Fold this sequence. Notes:
This protein folds into two domains: 14-109 and 296-337 and 362-445 and 452-458 and 472-500, Aminopeptidase (3-Layer(aba) Sandwich); 110-292, Glucose Oxidase, domain 1 (3-Layer(bba) Sandwich). Helix content is 30%, strand content 23%. It is built from 13 helices and 18 strands. The strands form three sheets. Strands 1, 2, 3, 4, 5, 8, 9, 10, 11, 12, 15, 16, 17 and 18 form a 14-stranded mixed β-sheet that branches. It has a two-stranded antiparallel ribbon with strand order 6-7. It has a two-stranded antiparallel sheet with strand order 13-14. α10 crosses α12 (486-504). The longest helix has 24 residues, at 14-37. It starts with 13 loop residues before the first helix and ends in a 5-residue tail after the last helix.
Amino acid sequence: xxxxxxxxxxxxxxxxxxxxxxxxxxxxxxxxxxxxxxxxxxxxxxxxxxxxxxxxxxxxxxxxxxxxxxxxxxxxxxxxxxxxxxxxxxxxxxxxxxxxxxxxxxxxxxxxxxxxxxxxxxxxxxxxxxxxxxxxxxxxxxxxxxxxxxxxxxxxxxxxxxxxxxxxxxxxxxxxxxxxxxxxxxxxxxxxxxxxxxxxxxxxxxxxxxxxxxxxxxxxxxxxxxxxxxxxxxxxxxxxxxxxxxxxxxxxxxxxxxxxxxxxxxxxxxxxxxxxxxxxxxxxxxxxxxxxxxxxxxxxxxxxxxxxxxxxxxxxxxxxxxxxxxxxxxxxxxxxxxxxxxxxxxxxxxxxxxxxxxxxxxxxxxxxxxxxxxxxxxxxxxxxxxxxxxxxxxxxxxxxxxxxxxxxxxxxxxxxxxxxxxxxxxxxxxxxxxxxxxxxxxxxxxxxxxxxxxxxxxxxxxxxxxxxxxxxxxxxxxxxxxxxxxxxxxxxxxxxxxxxxxxxxxxxxxxxxxxxxxxxxx
Length: 522
């Protein structure tokens, strides 16, 4: 369940957005032509900021170390990581916004201490043991306890009248084995109710099952590597209902010597578009030890670098990155989160260092004030950024929001937001053309989720700095500092810092008066 009530926020005028979008392609094509012809003009060419690779990597190594245990929201390890970031910002001269650095709010948190998983066919057989963190993980909101029962395969765990995978079988007192995700051949009006692990678990329990094992079918990780997400859907916590997620490779093993293999199941379901449920010969034995905390404290870290212009210091550029990741399970399964999102946090911290240590010798003092925010709950439907937008008492004075999200991989720099906010995106485009030269020429606009979404909903122009063709270690134990691309990281962070610096000087005036009227200041 969610502990942050989302206040309905007005959306900026649709007609204004349409007019701005109509100008986007023409504006971007113009700047692309200038860059290719060598005639492009850019302001502040002589003040390019250069991020320090060693400093960036130091922050990433520290934040992704075992000391911070994967930084899951609700844990003490996350609060320790937040304290580290506040101390770094303070050392750079950034002040807490308000009386303290931390903006607290409660979240669900499930401390998974251990899990054992065995399979067998007959009681006297040698039991096959699978290893937590190597072969499987527990769902973030798994129940605790011991279950031992026969197993029934139920496809994607759907019980809709038009596609009932529970109809042909009896799962009472049994463990349900299913696939994550939903089939492409069914309409979303059917599948939306079965998309998350919590959805599937609730359906299985409704039919009398005592546990759920959902084979991870995600294409964003390797078949032999575990993947874990902090958010697994909405709904009530089921305290004694274990939920386990094996790798695809373990899924192959679980279905070996059964009625059908994993590959044949997928082939039959996709070709016939009909349920394919059956009882397995095997039984599963699962024992989960977990401590559930319904409202554990977590926090955003909010600091301010005051502007030096008496008039413009009342205007704000907000820079944000989510600090939380997905934590650990047991003592050996840690999800370090080096790229996601220690890299984005490192870029934010390095921007603060550059802006405070290089002025006034190498750059001007910032004129606008800059708010630095490290969000918690980024892995929980972006609770922290939504809370910040609800609570920040100077929203009409925010000129733009810049977000750093996973900037340490891929093969190029990707800055999202260009189609919706072309005049804002062009600042990144110009500076990349004279600096890094790695910006991917994308037609993408802001996604409808992420930390930037809450700002876009209230009409605040936003950019997301990320990478293109990355996410090879997405939410896996291999997202470690050694797998960071130092070149992409440094150039992405440098470009972001330069863009924020230019935004702080006051030339950019992209926020419409109409959008500011939607919001009132205290």
